[in-house]
Amino acid sequence: QEDQFKKVISHAKEYGYIFGSSEIYDGLSAVYDYGQNGAELKKNIKEYWWKSMVHLHQNIVGLDAAILMHPTTWTASGHVDAFNDPLIDNKDSKKRYRADVLVEDYAEKLNLKAQKEIDKAKKRFGEAFDEAQFVATNPRVVRYKTQQKEILERLGKSLTNEDLDDVEALIEELGIADPITGSKNWTEVRQFNLMFATKLGASADTAQDLYLRPETAQGIFVNYLNVQKTGRMKIPFGIAQIGKAFRNEIVARQFIFRMREFEQMEMQFFVRPGEDQKWYEYWKETRLNWHKSLGLGEENYRFHDHEKLAHYANAATDIEFNFPFGFKELEGIHSRTDFDLKAHEKHSGKKLQFFDPEINESYTPYVVETSIGLDRMFLAVFSSALKDETLADGSTRTVLSLPAILAPVKAAVFPLVKKDGLPEIAQQIVADLQWDFNVLYDEKDAVGKRYRRQDAAGTPFCITVDHDTLENDTVTIRHRDSMEQQRVAIADLKGMLQKALEI
Ligand code: ATP
């Protein structure tokens, strides 16, 4: 697993997907830049999300709010008081960790131990193996699972009560060690606010303290009435937004999984009070189906319903994805009640209500939120697409099997050789396709090598112009995943590509 993750990181760099930020100065930790292919993949993910959330739902509209917001926003949202993480330092290694992450990782280890027992038994009993029965009765598995559950429950309780002494006690009782040095010499747990502060205004005494937004959701809440009125929206309706968010994460690790500057794709759905549970279930299902539609493998997703709820929520779940380092949160779906709108009403003195003509009543709507990290989605797509394959003739190839709709370059066009007028025809094909599709021209190296280069870069189709083209205006089109080649008329290329990009 670790090897696969390293491969993902180096492949992302080698093929122009992701670079460390300001690398020539040795980089900035947990900040990344997207290269020529990364920028395209990211844009395609955004577009896919935007189309399915905004264009395919007549009652959802978009928004693009500013990153800087009035500072009271963050008092109202609770971020000034509650956007804290419990931190712990190791006295020997001087390394700093998030205390809850240390405990969660320990609990996850118990889970892995249980899984090992299950896998062993599966191998031993073969076909006859009844997994549910085994999990319910095998004493070791039961012990691991119960212990894991107890630890997480206790952690959840201490975090919601902010009883950090208990988190500290947990770390001691479980004998959790510094993951790098193995030392168990910990300091006490402290709270740390994750928001990045900045100043508005030039002179030191009049400058106002601002925060870079730690989530995009609040830009939607403060604009709720603007959009509802000007768009003449009727409940239920949604507002969607894609934009940057900033968190001064302490445990910045796992590549683009946890970044300090990242992008969110969020949708807030405003509903009638009392109908929140129904819509929460609806969005859970709809969002999971969205993920499945990309074909990254249904077994790579699972729900993780929260037992410990944030201060604003009455129900919450994560859609977890099987990243190279295991199942982790990819998207959050939260039933946020009327917490945010009520808080903004209180702090701004403005009414944020909706008059519902169907029931002849005014109320503050309830909100169901779907919130996904664009960068995490990128990592999910990229890591699950990267494969090493052994071919029938014993040779190997690296292939990045991105869904065609998300692939940065849709087709690469090659002249078989650099003479006989083939390059000119290939260039003309590029010129005819490039307004509709991102295509590229390549004439360097033998054609087999060019195929391999595009396989590794994730390009789903290679179009080759050869001497037959001169006779009959046809080319070969080679499919990345099956490596099959097909002879097609140049005039049919556009239609074929269009069709291949449908989902
Ligand atoms: P985590 O528990 O992993 O810190 P979270 O529960 O704080 O995440 P939310 O506040 O619910 O996350 O944010 C919604 C989504 O934004 C997450 O599901 C995740 O995909 C993404 N996200 C949150 N923090 C980061 C980050 N530091 N880097 C990249 N993506 C992030």
UniProtKB/TrEMBL annotation:
Outline the subunit composition.
Homodimer.
Question: Which residues of this UniProt protein bind substrate?
Answer: R98, E215, F262, E263, Q264, M265, E266, E369, T370, S371, I372, G373
Q: Which InterPro entries match?
A: aa-tRNA-synt_IIb, aa-tRNA-synth_II, aa-tRNA-synth_II/BPL/LPL, Anticodon-bd, Anticodon-bd_dom_sf, Gly-tRNA_synthase/POLG2, Gly_tRNA_ligase_bac, GlyRS-like_core
Gene name of this polypeptide = glyQS
**Name listed for the protein in its UniProt record:** Glycine--tRNA ligase
Give GO MF terms, alphabetically: ligase activity
Return the similarity comment: Belongs to the class-II aminoacyl-tRNA synthetase family.
> What EC number(s) does its UniProt record assign?
6.1.1.14
Q: Which Gene3D superfamilies does the UniProt entry name for this protein?
A: 3.30.40.230, Anticodon-binding domain (3.40.50.800), Bira Bifunctional Protein, Domain 2 (3.30.930.10)
Q: Which domain of life is it from?
A: Bacteria
One Pfam family it belongs to: tRNA-synt_2b
**What's the catalysed reaction?**
tRNA(Gly) + glycine + ATP = glycyl-tRNA(Gly) + AMP + diphosphate
Q: Where in the cell is it found?
A: Cytoplasm
Recite the UniProt keywords alphabetically: Aminoacyl-tRNA synthetase, ATP-binding, Cytoplasm, Ligase, Nucleotide-binding, Protein biosynthesis
Where in this chain does the entry annotate a coiled-coil region? none
What does this gene product do? Answer: Catalyzes the attachment of glycine to tRNA(Gly).
Stored HAMAP family? Gly_tRNA_synth_B
